[in-house]
Amino acid sequence: MTAAATITAPDTADLRAALGGRAIVLVGMMGSGKSSVGRRLASRLGMPFVDADTEIETAAGMTIPEIFAQRGEAEFRDGERRVISRILTTRAPLVLATGGGAFMNAETRERIRQLGVSVWLKAEPDVLMRRVRKRSNRPLLQTTDPEATLRRMLADREPVYALADLTIQSSDEPHELVVGETIAALGGYLRLTAGEDTP
Questions:
Q1: Is the N end or the C end of the chain the one with fewer CB atoms within 10 Å?
Q2: Nearest to 30 by CA among 61, 51, 4, 3
Q3: Which range, of 121-130, 134-143, 167-176, averages the lowest pLDDT?
């Protein structure tokens, strides 16, 4: 489901009640705005916000680039899976921003399906590249052609991201607008908006 401008945003208290104990889980590529949108979304809804990457770094006692360099991607992904499962099991309801590769893990997708509502923040490749160039801590983009690498990753991952419950376009518009679209889409998904059909 893609958010439509015609959907009226639900009352945030009603939305929280409809969520019950579930989490709102943001998925998508690096640079799609998951952390920035997630913080604002959590603030609007009066819910806690957790960034999975930050939790992974805390648990490991090192940065994500250090984990990749010292332990490799496979060990990072295993830790990521465990951390996300623990967060969803023990700390929901909350807004959770996940790393770009987290949703690719079938076990993680199933855990999110059971305990949350997944929201894919979908961004075009040029938008992603403009954003990720601002930071040098992207281990998977430390290649001779980062843009080609990102486009390959996007092609591989988009069919899986498309399995998310909701899809929200993340463009160069202010993140507050993306937050509003997300709240409206969640309202429709949770049958809160009068006259709207559930997807």
A1: C
A2: 51
A3: 134-143
Q: What's the pLDDT at 142?
A: 62
The structure tokens listed for 74 are 């496979």
Phi and psi at residue 82, in whole multiples of 5°?
-65, -45
pLDDT at 199 over 60: no
Give the tokens for residue 164: 């998310």
Which residues are CB-contacts of 190 (< 8 A; sequence separation ≥ 6)? 10, 15, 18, 19, 117
The four Cα atoms 24, 28, 30, 33 give a dihedral, to 10 degrees, of: -50
pLDDT mean across residues, the chain: 86
> Which pTM was predicted?
0.86
Q: Is the pLDDT of residue 50 over 60?
A: yes
What distance in Å separates the CA atoms of residue 21 and residue 97, rounded to the nearest whole number? 17
Task: For residue 96, give both structure tokens.
Answer: 């959770």
